[in-house]
């Protein structure tokens, strides 16, 4: 791509300079992320209320979740954040191989996460632990435990949805990046997509201990 | 462009720290800290999130306006959860005659 074309992408006419445009773009993505914080924050708040109102129930219900799988998924996501940061790094240095390679790695890790999540969901279904679908919980405090599993599916379900959207975004970045759209002078879409991906990782960082690691002592 | 390029080595250091903190998260879960249990678990998660925000998301090298937004999101969430919890935790404190 010619220098002139890259320059006009990085510096549209309504901005004073490329730096201002870059800052405006990242600020816009941060506003969206704060919106997402409100979205997930509300669900975390519901979790907090019901866990306090029904002490002990959540801890008991949490035993049905597989800690090993949750830990593997946490490690996968944290690694994907590393590869995403390295992808942005590649874009910043104009290293197309690093950019594309790391984007691909991030996507593979994201897909692995979703695969494990799907396995967990199907297992929950086979155990009759899906509220509204085939809820047949035999243990104590069945009604309150249903709250825990409703929250589990709502929280991890919306998280998984965000992961799927993220995979789509990364795929689009890869496709466009392979054609040489990003370089030293312009790589803002890679940077702000990275912000989105890291945020989805942060949501999981909170989900893991709050859902999987309850009642272990 | 005056964008700050974080060296790859920093990313790997943060990654290693995140893995260590994840291990600590699991280890801490198997120990009983009494009333501090929840606080410890959330605190470790907050430290991990801070590392991701500061370094992976480049906030440490971002303009102050970005910091304002990040802080706003964080404090808003804190305020929401805190104030809603004060409602539920205080239920039943003051006897109110039933209204039919």
Keyphrases for this structure?
heterodimer, A: 217 residues, Four Helix Bundle (Hemerythrin (Met), subunit A), 77% helix, B: 100 residues, 2 domains, 3 helices
Task: Summarize it.
The complex is a heterodimer of chains A (217) and B (100). Chain A is mainly α and 217 residues long. Helix content of chain A is 77%, strand content 0%.
Word description of this protein:
The complex is a heterodimer of chains A (217) and B (100). Chain A has 217 residues and is mainly alpha-helical. Chain A has a single domain (39-212), classed as Up-down Bundle (Four Helix Bundle (Hemerythrin (Met), subunit A)). In chain A, 77% of the residues lie in helices and 0% in strands. In chain A, helix 2 runs antiparallel to helix 6, helix 2 (18-53) runs parallel beside helix 7 (188-212) and helix 6 runs antiparallel to helix 7. The radius of gyration of chain A is 21 Å and the shape is elongated. In chain A, 41% of the residues are buried. In chain B, helix 1 runs antiparallel to helix 2 (37-56). The longest helix of chain B has 26 residues, at 64-89. By secondary structure, chain B is mainly α. Chain B is built from 3 helices and no strands. Helices cover 68% and strands 0% of the residues of chain B. Chain B folds into 2 domains: 1-61; 63-93. At the A-B interface, helix 2, helix 4 and helix 7 of A face helix 1, helix 2 and helix 3 of B.
């Amino acid at each position: 791509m010619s220098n002139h074309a890259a320059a006009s992408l990085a510096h549209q006419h309504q901005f004073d300079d490329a730096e201002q445009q870059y800052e405006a773009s990242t600020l816009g993505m941060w506003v969206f992320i704060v919106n997402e914080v409100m979205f997930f924050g509300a669900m975390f708040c519901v979790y907090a209320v019901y866990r306090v109102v029904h002490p002990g129930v959540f801890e008991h219900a949490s035993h049905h979740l597989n800690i090993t799988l949750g830990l593997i998924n946490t490690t996968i996501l944290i690694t994907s954040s590393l590869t995403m940061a390295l992808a942005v790094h590649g874009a910043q240095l104009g290293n197309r191989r690093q950019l594309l390679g790391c984007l691909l790695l991030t996507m593979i890790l994201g897909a692995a996460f979703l695969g494990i999540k799907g396995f967990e969901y199907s297992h929950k279904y086979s155990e009759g632990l899906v509220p509204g679908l085939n809820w047949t919980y035999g243990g104590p405090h069945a009604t309150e435990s249903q709250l825990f599993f409703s929250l589990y599916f709502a929280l991890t379900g919306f998280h998984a949805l965000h992961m799927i959207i993220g995979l789509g975004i990364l795929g689009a970045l890869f496709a466009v990046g392979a054609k040489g759209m990003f370089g030293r002078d312009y790589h803002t879409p890679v940077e702000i997509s990275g912000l989105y991906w890291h945020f989805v990782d942060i949501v999981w960082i909170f989900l893991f201990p709050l859902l999987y690691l309850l009642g272990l002592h | 462009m005056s964008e700050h390029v974080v060296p790859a080595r920093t990313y790997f250091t943060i990654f290693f720290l995140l893995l260590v903190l994840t291990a600590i998260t699991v280890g801490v879960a198997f120990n009983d800290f009494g009333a501090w249990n929840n606080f410890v678990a959330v605190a470790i998660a907050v430290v991990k999130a801070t590392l991701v925000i500061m370094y992976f998301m480049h906030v440490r090298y971002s303009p102050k306006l970005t910091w304002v937004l990040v802080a706003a999101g964080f404090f808003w969430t804190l305020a929401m959860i805190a104030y809603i919890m004060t409602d539920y935790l205080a239920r039943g404190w003051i006897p109110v005659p039933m209204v039919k």
